[in-house]
Specification:
By secondary structure, the chain is α+β, with helices and mostly antiparallel strands. Helices cover 37% and strands 10% of the residues. α1 packs antiparallel against α2.
Length: 71
């Protein structure tokens, strides 16, 4: 079961509020955008056979898009 509890609540209560702001580019991400990004990432990982509780490794540059993987 994919559960994004904390993020799901913010998506319902304040979907347009700013969740993230990139200090270099000033790009902003709302709670709704972050929630849907996290849900899409979780769904994709599930298609690869990753289940709730599994551990994954991420090798990436430091970028805001990686934040959604924490949810």
């Amino acid at each position: 079961k994919l559960e994004l509890d904390w993020l799901k609540k913010w998506n319902l209560y304040s979907p347009k509020a700013i969740a993230l702001k990139d200090g270099e580019t000033d790009n902003e991400v709302s709670y709704s955008q972050l929630f849907h990004s996290a849900l899409a990432g979780a769904s994709y990982l599930a298609t690869l056979g990753v289940k709730y509780g599994d551990r994954i490794a991420v090798i990436s540059q430091n970028c805001p898009e990686i934040i959604s993987l924490f949810f």
